Amino acid sequence: AQKVTQAQTEISVVEKEDVTLDCVYETRDTTYYLFWYKQPPSGELVFLIRRNSFDEQNEISGRYSWNFQKSTSSFNFTITASQVVDSAVYFCALSEPNYGGATNKLIFGTGTLLAVQP
Amino acid sequence: KAGVTQTPRYLIKTRGQQVTLSCSPISGHRSVSWYQQTPGQGLQFLFEYFSETQRNKGNFPGRFSGRQFSNSRSEMNVSTLELGDSALYLCASRASTNEKLFFGSGTQLSVL
Question: Residue B20's pLDDT is what?
Fold first, then answer.
């Protein structure tokens, strides 16, 4: 069965600190997709990144970076020099392909609440 | 370009009633899906529609149903509401299979 575990329920850091959000997943499929979403207090889920199981390259986008390791089934997310605006709940998610591509059925982790203090 | 629009933003109902939630996807998006978010169960997939056809369904009772219209707008209906149906209901859309999902701000349903 598919499962996503985000062991960190809440993290509090001071502005400008680096922070890493952990994500561990379980799936029996060899082809799958991994995602990170951010949910600010407004409630809308904001897409951050999608990675397919064949692409293990790490990715950096501005202050954000992602480390995907199939050997440990982990897809961790690091924010460098955190800012107050980064405060939100962050969700890691997993999906299996359907109809030739990523399905809309995402299995979400329980989320990590990140609080960045000024 | 307008984002995914969900109406109403807030809704209060009593047990036993039924409710209909609406979702307008981003213009040009033909795929719509629905999620339920609760503090206890987290984010759970409800259904996925593409070109008016349900392609996937989550593990929810038959009281939860949905549909998609020819203009890609979608509605979900919950009949015989229970207290446990209180949740944030999120709608998401995307243009095609390999595109990313865009979410709306959700409808907060409270069942009293």
Answer: 98
